[in-house]
Amino acid sequence: MTKGKDHKPHIGIYGRRNVGKSSFINALTGLDVAIVSDVAGTTTDPVKKSMEIFGIGPAILIDTAGIDDSGVLGEKRIEKTVQTIAQIDAAFLLISNNNFGLFEQELIKQFDHYDVKYAIIHNKEDEETLTYLTKDQIRLVSPASVEICSIKTSKNIAEVIELIKVTIPPTSYQKTTLLGDIIKKDDIVMLITPIDSEAPDGRMILPQAMAIRDVLDNNAVNIVLKETEVENFFKNTKIKPKLVVTDSQAFELVNKIIPKDIPLTGFSVLFARMRGPFEDYVDGVKKLSNLEDGDRILILESCVHQVSCEDIGRHKLPNWIKKFSQKNIEFDVAAGLSEIQKPITDYSLVIQCGGCMITKKQLLSRLKPALDAKIPVTNYGLSIAYMNGILDRAIQPFIKEEIVNIN
Predict the structure, then answer these.
(1) 247 close to 306: Cβ distance less than 8 angstroms
(2) Fewer CB within 10 Å, N side or C side of the chain?
(3) Does residue 154 sit in the same domain as residue 28?
(4) Of 124, 147, 172, which residue is a domain's last?
C-alpha cells in the first residue's frame, strides 16, 4: 500500500478477523465500499477508500486483513497489514466481545514504533458491552483513548467520528508551504527549470509546479526560465529577485551567474526542509567527504518512472559521487516504497530524493531504519550543493544560525 501522489491523511483500520473493520468503514463513509461477510478473513489485501471528514477534509481509510489470520496466505496478509503502519497518519484498533490480547498488543507496539497516533474502539456493543476488566487490560499496555460503538445499531458513530478528528495529527492535513516563511507579498522569485529528457512533455515537474503555486499563494511574483536564459535576463533587465530557486542539477552553473547578494537555493533543498529530517540531512551530507573504497550507498527514489541515461538518481548522482570522492563506491537504488533488499547496516550513506510524491510521514518512516542505526542520511539537492562547494549558500535562506558554515 502506498500513498503515491495522494497527500490526504491516511487512516488505518486494524483488528482481528470479524471485528467489523469493513462494516466500520462502510458506516463512516455512508457507502458499501468494503466487502462485508460473516466469514472471517474476507478482507485480504489492504483496501483504500476516500472520505470527507468535517474539520479535516478529504482522508483515506484503509481496510486491512485480520491480524489473527492463519495459514501461509494468512501470514502474507498479516505482513501486508503490518507494512501499512509505516505509511499511515493515524490508526484505529477495533476490538469486539472484550477480546484484547497478544494480537492487539503487537499492533500497539508497531504503532508506537512508527510514532502513529491511534485510538481503540470496542465494536459490536449490541452483542457484548465493554467490561471494566477489558479496560484495565488495555490500560496496562496503552494510554490511548477508548470508545465504544455498534455499527449494526449505529450506536456512537458520531462520537467515533469526533475521536477520529482528535486522533489525526493536524500536521497530516494542514497545508504546508515551501516558501511562505521566507518570502512576502510582492517579492520577486526566480525559478530556474532546466528542460532535459527527464522533463515531462508539455508540463512542469511536480516540485516546479508546486513552487510556482506556492509563490502565487503568497502573493509574490514568479519569474520562470531555463538555466540557459539566466545570464541574458540579468544583462537585459534591472530586476533583482528576492530569491532564486534552481533545479539542483544546475547548481554549479547557476551559482556562477546569480550575484552573491541574491539568496540561492534548490527545489530539492526546499523539499528537504519541508518534508525531511533537515538537520540530519545537513549533517549527513558531510559523509560524502569521508567515503572509503567499497562503501555502499543507498539511493531512495520515492517515485517510479522510466529510467533514462540522464536519470539523476541512477546515473548522474552516482557518477558525481564517484568523481567527488575518488573512491570505488557501490550503489543500490530502491524505487517507490519497495522493500530495501539488503540490511540497512550494509550502507555507509542513504540519499533520499526530494520526496515531492509522498508525505512527510511516509518519508520519515522510509528513513527511520537508517536514522535508528545511526547511518548518515541526506538528499539529492543537498548532496549536489555540497559537492559543488555551495552548501552554505543553498541553506542560508532558512537554516538556523547554529548549523551554518559546516562545509
Answers:
(1) no
(2) C
(3) yes
(4) 172
Choose one of 270, 291, 323: the last residue of a domain: 270
Structural domain harbouring 106: 10-172
Same domain? 294 vs 320: yes
Tens-digit pLDDT profile for residues 65-124: 899 988 888 888 898 899 899 888 899 999 999 999 999 999 999 999 999 999 999 999
Which three three-digit cell numbers place residue 381? 539537492
159 and 222 share one domain: no
What distance in Å separates the CA atoms of residue 131 and residue 99, rounded to the nearest whole number?
10
The dihedral formed by the CA atoms of 197, 334, 79 and 371, expressed in degrees to the nearest 10: -130
Residue 56 lies in a domain: yes
Total residue length of the chain = 407
Q: Is residue 235 part of a domain?
A: yes
- Structure-model confidence comparison of residues 44 and 56, the more confident one: 56
Report CA Rg, the chain: 24
Nearest to 137, CA basis, from 106, 99, 190, 192: 99
* pLDDT of 285 above 70: yes
Short-list 373, 251, 257, 235, CA closest to 312: 251
Residue with cell 479496560: 135
Those residues whose C-beta lies under 8 Å from the C-beta of residue 230, and which sit 6 or more positions away, are: 190, 192, 254, 257, 258
In angstroms, the Cα distances linking 398 to 16, 94, 182, 280 are: 47, 43, 7, 15
Which residue, chain included where needed, has cell 539542483?
Answer: 248
* Contact between residue 106 and residue 94 where contact means Cβ atoms under 8 Å apart: no
| Gap between the Cα atoms of 170 and 181, Å rounded | 19
The reply to whether 180 falls in a domain is no
The CATH number that applies at residue 98 is 3.40.50.300
Q: Is the pTM of this model over 0.70?
A: yes
By DSSP bridging, strand 47-53 and strand 57-63 are: antiparallel
What is the C-alpha separation between 332 and 299, in angstroms, rounded?
Answer: 6
CATH code of the domain covering residue 313 = 3.40.50.11410
